[in-house]
Amino acid sequence: MDSVVEMTGVVKRFGAVTALDGLDFEVAAGEVHGFLGPNGSGKSTTLRLLLGLLRSSAGSIRVLGLDPWHDVAALHRRLAYVPGDVALWPNLTGGEVIDLLGRLQGVHDRARRDRLLELFELDPSKKSRTYSKGNRQKVALVAALATDAELFLLDEPTSGLDPLMEDAFRGCVRELRAQGRTVVLSSHILSEAEALSDRVSIIRAGKVVETGPLEQLRHLTRTSVTADLAAVPPGLDVLPGVHDVVVTNHRVTAQVEPAGLGPFLDALTSAGLQSLTSQPPTLEDLFLRHYGDISAGDAAAAVGTTTGRSGVPRPGLPGDGGRRSRDA
Amino acid sequence: MRETLAGTGVMIRLGLRRDRWLLPFWIAGFALISYSTAVAGAELYPELGSRVEAATALNATASMVALFGRIYDPTSIGALSLIKYTAFMTAILAVLMAILVVRHTRADEESGRLELLGGGRLGRDAPLASALTISLGANLALGLLSAAALTAGGLPSSGSLAFGLGWAATGMAFSAVAGVAAQVTASARAATGFSIGFIAVTYALRAVGDLAEPGPSVLSWLSPIGWNQQIRAFAGDRWWVLALPAALCLVLVPAAFALRAARDLGAGLRAERPGPSAGSLAGVWDLAVRLQYRLLLAWSVAFVLFGVVIGSLVSNVGELLNSPNAQDLIRRIGGQAALTDAFLAAEISIMGVLAAAYGVSAANHLRSEEASGHTEALLGTATTRIRWAASHFAFALAGVTVLLLLAGVSIGAGAASAVGDAALVGRSTVAALAQVPAAWVLAGVALAVFGWAPRLAGMVWVFLLALVALGEFGVLWNAPEWLMELSPFRHSPLLPVDSGAVPALAALTVAAAALAALGFAGWRRRDLTA
Ligand SMILES: Nc1ncnc2c1ncn2[C@@H]1O[C@H](COP(=O)(O)OP(=O)(O)O)[C@@H](O)[C@H]1O
Ligand SMILES: [Mg+2]
Q: Same domain, yes or no, for A291 and A148?
């Protein structure tokens, strides 16, 4: 069996709100799959449907070949879940919660648990009430990672973790992949999924709008560069992979694809580079650029980008972003 | 305005919006009850003679005095009509106000809502200040509307005002108590528990104080509920007594703010101690026990103490034999049985209602666990929904049974030692256990609501209070028979319980089981909702 998760045409309505609107989502066995989307796009709803915590309004869902609504116990023995909002019993210690969840899961590996506690620098003897958000997140992560699951569903697993702990978490995910397990991790931060995922799916307003290996979606990952130069050379805008070049006096801003970064920086350096800031694109930038709806489209037009027809997702091709220069 | 109070206005508006159904419902409820009682009282006791007779009989009946207090002017129609309202309904009002204050302070803190708002321009004291302001407004509205309703119902306006202000002042005093409790305890549940415990103690204090001859003794004066009775509305209207709850507020409110300043958001005054770093909880049942045993323990202690005290009052019943009216009254409350039995039956049926209240609170753990997000983590494991829900529900059923067993034994022991008849222990234990199925029905209602309309979990309390009010005052209000028959408590057999009670007990058990099945079915097919 290749597909661990298969969702086709899934609709989920909450009263008048349509959270998922014909969602197709597929995760292959053994991959780390990034599930990306801005807040409110339906990531948590999707994961809860995969767990049978919610019931779909339409469409079909298979997880590990099972129906998550009917085969709950059989399915859940084979997967581990970290909720987006980790809420713990204030009176129980972190260690008690981890052990309880582990036993309910059916697997209880003390050695692995202790190793994870050390890795995440978590004191298990503290009452949950006193934990910070990051520490609550760690409790849920340790409980999930200590299991023997085939499939890990992690809803924004690094929210609240400091960078050091994020590193530890990435190490764990790589370990899981090396063991052939499947991991779905949702995020609204592009760079996070980028660092870990074999493939990503991008969800917007309840629909998956892009899916594929990250290299294929390179056009999504343009870095925003701002540089102050001694003198701005001509022809920056015709460099390959460089988009949206805007020049104001001695300052250049541009959106650059990963492959275009080297030549672009070379050109800047030889033009007398005085200061440089670069920013990975935020998901919001990305949506503005690629999947703009009417209002986002207007905003995008204002910054000099072409967009697809309103409301219609348009697969972006490298280099076809609106190119403009020296319009300031 | 002080920095720490910044945002109080916003919080007040937010609170009023959140309670836009609850508060008008409570206020209108109290005013309506006041009105109908005033009207009914005038019909029930049209002449002076019948009034004096009833008042004298009540004052001579120890259990009535303990439960409701004394009538200080036997000729007063107002004092007689409202006898059950100066203590009993006041305690209900106090519980509601405590819930209100905790809901807007500690519970919000726990859910993280306040942290969210605190990031904006919200001062440290704003939540407490807004909660107390809302409850002050609610108490005043409730008191003044009730006063107007009593006057409209035909009672003297001066007494009506004294009565209404008594409710308002007492309600506010308990709001202030809850405000303090919300600061010293470590969780919303503990704060509510502490407040309700405090209310129960003040109720018991005045019960003992009122029983003293000649009553009331100093104990009644130690209790805010006792103060409310000592205002003696319609029986002298002693306005100066209103200064006592006002003074208590003037002490407690600043104390609550001082305590708030002394602790961090989300923390109690006492620092947390570390606990075990490894867990021994093996499953959802262990977890339910762990989360619930404290509450059951507290109720058990209260049940035993209360049971022994009211059980021992049985010796006073004999003194009433020369008062035919008292005999008649007791018989009507307890069914056509011997006086001792009737007395014990009345006490035991009260314990049955209290046990049902415990059952609702235990079963409502399901909803609070779900709403706080704990259930999501549990159901992500191999645990099934039904197994999890069954754990809390089973604890509720078992808890109800334990409480009524304790009630029966302690009432029986109290009574047996008072009259020297050991057989009373067995009789009252059987009678108390016969109240179990009705209490289970209420737990079943809570589960059914959880399964089908989880956001209405709080309404189960309103339902229970409505049943209690219907049972207490239904005849007074001329409620239709079929409506009164709906209450499970009406079908609980009274002492002495014999084999004739089996059909009713079986029917109640079946009803509880049906409600539970309904609840599980709903829970199995609905979404998890925060
Ligand atoms: N229980 C619910 N009731 C009503 N609306 C909901 C509920 N859960 C989620 N939604 C709505 O569904 C949409 C998707 O939410 P969610 O899946 O939580 O998004 P994400 O996790 O991507 O931030 C949002 O518009 C949210 O308001
Ligand atoms: Mg989410």
A: no
Is the CB of B279 less than 8 angstroms away from the CB of A48?
A: no
Beta bridge partner(s), residue A151: A79, A182
Would the pTM of this model clear 0.80, i.e. be above it?
no
Instruction: Take residue A290 and report the two structure tokens written for it.
Output: 């690629």
ipTM value for the complex? 0.77
Q: How many domains does chain B have?
A: 2
> What are the structure tokens assigned to B337, written together?
């049985």
Residues B118-154: tens digit of each pLDDT:
556 678 888 899 999 999 999 999 999 999 999 999 9
The token duo for A32 is: 């780390």
Residue A313 pLDDT grade (very low, low, confident, very high; cuts 50, 70, 90):
very low
User: Is-contact B392 B363, C-beta < 8 A?
Assistant: yes
Tell me: the pLDDT tens digits for A28-38?
A: 999 999 999 88
Token pair for A151: 């499939």
Q: Which two tokens stand for residue B6?
A: 């910044």
Asked whether residue B509 is domain-assigned, the answer is yes
Same domain, A156 and A281: no
Answer yes or no: are the C-beta atoms of B411 and B310 closer than 8 Å: yes
In 3D, which of B333, B337, B307, B303 has the Cα closest to residue B412?
B307
Q: Closest Cα to residue B220, out of B320, B353, B72, B80?
A: B72
Mutual orientation of helices B324-334 and B48-59 as an angle, nearest 10°?
Answer: 70
pLDDT by residue (tens digit) across B396-408?
999 999 999 999 9
Average pLDDT, chain B: 87
**Residues whose beta carbon lies within 6 Å of some atom of ligand 1:** A 14, 17, 19, 37, 39-45, 84; B 529
Indicate whether A319 belongs to any domain: no
* B405 lies in some domain: yes
Range of A154-158, A220-224, B263-267 with top mean pLDDT: A154-158
Q: What is the domain extent for residue A233?
A: 221-303
Q: How far is A241 from chain B (nearest CA, A)?
A: 41
Residue recorded with tokens 């009260």: B350
In a domain, B511, yes or no: yes
**Whats the size of chain A, residue-wise?**
328
Alpha carbons within 13 angstroms on the beta-carbon side of residue B515 total: 23
Query: Are A253 and A208 in a shared domain?
Result: no
A90 and A110 in a single domain? The answer is: yes
Domain span at residue B178 reads 1-44+84-269
Q: How far is the CA of A196 from the centre of ligand 2 (A)?
A: 19
Give me the mean pLDDT over the B276-287 stretch. Answer: 88
Place of tokens 């949206």: A244
Whether residue A264 sits in one domain with residue A192 = no
Give the length of chain B: 530
- For B7-36, b/e burial (b = at least 16 CB within 10 A) is bbeebbebbeeebeebbeebbebbbebbbb
Check if the beta carbon of residue A102 is closer than 8 Å to that of residue A114: no
Judge whether A29 and A2 are in contact, CB under 8 Å: yes
Q: Report which secondary-structure segment, H or E, holds A229.
A: strand A223-229
CA distances from A319 to A201, A225, A240, A281, A328 (A): 21, 17, 8, 16, 21
**pLDDT the model gives residue A224:** 83
B314, B420 contact by CB (below 8 A):
no
CA atoms within 13 A on the CB side of B100: 34
Q: Give Cβ neighbours of residue A166 (< 8 Å, ≥ 6 apart).
A: A158, A192
**Cα atoms in the 13 Å half-sphere on the side-chain side of A275:** 5
Nearest-CA distance A53 → chain B (Å): 6
Residue B317: the pLDDT is 56
Q: How far apart are CA B389 and CA B444, in angstroms?
A: 12
Question: Is B74 part of any domain?
Answer: no
Residue nearest to atom 26 of ligand 1 (CA): A40
> Do residues B185 and B268 lie in contact, with contact meaning Cβ atoms separated by under 8 Å?
yes
Of the candidates B374, B381, B525, which has its C-beta nearest A104's C-beta? Answer: B381
